[in-house]
Automatic annotation (TrEMBL):
Compartments, as annotated in UniProt: Cell membrane; Membrane
One annotated Gene Ontology cellular component of this protein: plasma membrane
A Pfam family the protein falls into: TauE
Family: Belongs to the 4-toluene sulfonate uptake permease (TSUP) (TC 2.A.102) family.
Protein name per UniProt: Probable membrane transporter protein
Length: 260
């Protein structure tokens, strides 16, 4: 097994494992791992390749939620369709920005995601909102904004989509999680498609990353059932990891500014 193949499988496995173990937020590690562990030279190629891997992982998880009846299909399809338009626009903008600047913004985003993970999650009772013009307009706005952010950074965006769905529709959290996965997959595919048109997707590497992610995800889900009582501790540990990686991303991107 070559060093690159081992790094790709291992990095994909780590992303899949964290997604299975702690849920949302795990895919944000894909781009840094592709850059600094696998050795992808250009940030834009790492983002395009990572977006495809994120989409595959989301589809795999979406299937299990759909079988359990956690998906609100009409909301999922509308949100995914509208958000994909935003993802295409966001990815087009992201490709036009210098790689070092984009990585700096990515590092700042990681700090935000890490901060959200350590905040206490209050379980609030929600009531489904009536399907009227106001609810449709809010859902459309949230979908486009979340899709644009997902496309710009090449991330899954579940940490934005889940609260956005709850805010717009009033659906229960478990349904928002299941429904969001179709949107995450669609946004990832739209972003990967945009980057692929510019030749910024390494297809073989993406395949290796996805294979590792599937295996890691299965292990992560098994571990999650055994460690369910330590959920808050796991979130804090993973948030700490995100902070460390964010610091390294910011350090490297600032270094690139200096050298430039």
């Amino acid at each position: 097994m070559s060093a690159t193949l081992f790094a790709a499988l291992g990095s994909g496995g780590l992303v899949g494992f964290t997604l299975g173990l702690v849920g949302g937020g795990g895919s944000i590690l894909a781009t840094p791992l592709l850059l600094y562990v696998v050795g992808v030279a250009q940030p834009h190629i790492a983002i395009g390749t990572g977006a495809l891997a994120v989409a595959a992982n989301a589809f795999a998880n979406f299937g299990s939620h759909a079988l359990k009846g956690h998906v609100w299909w009409r909301c999922a399809l509308v949100f995914a369709a509208l958000g994909s338009v935003g993802a295409l626009a966001g990815s087009t903008l992201g490709k036009s920005i210098d790689g070092a600047h984009l990585l700096f913004l990515f590092g700042l985003l990681m700090l935000v995601v890490g901060g959200l993970m350590v905040l206490p999650r209050r379980s609030t009772s929600t009531t489904a909102r009536p399907v009227d013009a106001r609810m449709c307009a809010m859902t459309a706005a949230v979908a486009i904004v979340a899709g644009a952010a997902s496309g710009f950074f090449g991330i899954g965006g579940g940490f934005l989509i889940v609260p956005g769905l709850i805010l717009a529709t009033g659906m229960p959290t478990i349904n928002a999680i299941g429904t969001s996965l179709l949107a995450v997959a669609a946004f990832g595919l739209a972003t990967a498609f945009s980057y692929a048109l510019s030749g910024m997707v390494e297809w073989q590497l993406a395949g290796e990353f996805i294979v590792g992610g599937i295996g890691g995800g299965l292990i992560g889900m098994l571990a999650a059932t055994r460690l369910a009582s330590y959920k808050n501790v796991l979130n804090r540990i993973f948030a700490a990891l995100i902070f460390v990686v964010a610091g390294y991303v910011l350090y490297r991107s600032i270094g690139a500014f200096t050298l430039g």
